[in-house]
From TrEMBL:
<dbReference type="InterPro" id="IPR011256">
    <property type="entry name" value="Reg_factor_effector_dom_sf"/>
</dbReference>
<protein>
    <submittedName>
        <fullName>Effector-binding domain-containing protein</fullName>
    </submittedName>
</protein>
Length: 306
């Protein structure tokens, strides 16, 4: 009996020593989020404040492994910071498992002793829990504003002739605002030339800087025939041929539709499909007519590389 107790005690001491002095991270949180790792990774990278009360604390991305992991450093004050390492794993097309590993940069040993001390509350962990739960509530609230439905098979994009307005170096979060500022150019051209439209308005990305989240794109109206039309200083005439592509359907405010692009990129990587990072969005609904964002539908395509 004594030998058993000694072995158990030795294992406990070894485990405690491993946790206090060897284990890389102080604490681990686990949760789930809606949609695929691509969309979830983007949402995590857009997290700008840690404080539940909205007080600014600088969050810096220090490392990322595409859609598998993301490491952030959160500056708490001039001398102290903590490290968050997020690990993502796909559950299915509509859910992602999230593991958050936390490492304090200051008072690491004292914080770990507080965590394992059964006789007192850990202010460090209690504060972290409050902050992480606040973020999770914000993530749920944000993800409730849209829905992403992937299609499993490779499809064909529509073949389109169109009149287009070109925009360059636009932040992803400013895409919808830019389209709103240029749509009158297209509408006036249609009225002036008495053109018959031949489908829904669409956006075609021509350049995507993923490091800086900037895009160049054409915002276009499809027309029946461009052969008799003339370009102007602000309106170009283009033909987009049909291409094989991955596809998903996005429901929600079009200002958020870019979140779904990252799920398409993840889908391509997961299936071993080489793609061109030039998404196309086809907008089925006019925001001026229906105020319920969840009724808005956009088809999102990511072309397969030829």
């Amino acid at each position: 009996m004594k030998k058993i107790l000694i072995v158990v005690l030795a294992l406990c001491v070894a485990g405690l020593g491993w946790y206090l002095f060897i284990k890389k991270y102080d604490y681990q949180f686990e949760t789930t989020a809606r949609f695929g790792p691509g969309a979830v990774s983007y949402e995590l990278s857009e997290w700008k404040t840690l404080d539940a009360n909205g007080n600014s604390k600088e969050i810096e991305i220090t490392d990322r492994s595409d859609f598998n992991s993301l490491t952030q450093r959160i500056k708490l004050d001039s001398t102290n910071s903590i490290e968050f390492k997020w690990e993502l794993e796909r559950i299915n097309d509509s859910a992602t498992a999230i593991t958050l590993n936390v490492l304090s940069q200051k008072n690491k040993l004292a914080n770990r002793i507080d965590i394992v001390n059964p006789f007192q509350e850990s202010v460090y962990i209690d504060t972290l829990k409050e902050q992480v739960l606040s973020f999770k509530r914000s993530l749920i609230e944000h993800q409730n504003q849209y829905k992403i439905t992937p299609e499993k098979s490779v499809v064909e994009t529509p073949e389109l002739e169109c009149i287009c307005s070109t925009s360059k170096n636009i932040p992803l979060t400013g895409k919808a605002t830019e389209m709103m500022s240029t749509i009158s150019l297209l509408e006036n051209y249609v009225l002036r030339n008495k053109i018959n439209l031949n489908g829904f308005p669409f956006l075609k990305v021509t350049k995507w800087n993923r490091e800086k989240d900037l895009v160049d794109f054409d915002f276009c109206f499809p027309v029946e025939d461009i052969s008799k039309l003339e370009e102007t200083g602000k309106i170009s005439l283009k033909k987009y041929p049909s291409q094989k592509a991955l596809k998903l359907v996005f429901n929600g405010n079009y200002r958020l539709s870019h979140v779904s692009w990252f799920d398409l990129v993840y889908m391509a990587q997961d299936r071993g499909i080489e793609v061109e990072e030039g998404p196309m969005e086809i907008y089925h609904d006019n925001p001026k007519i229906d105020s319920d964002h969840m009724n808005w539908v956009a088809e999102i395509y990511l072309p397969v590389a030829e």
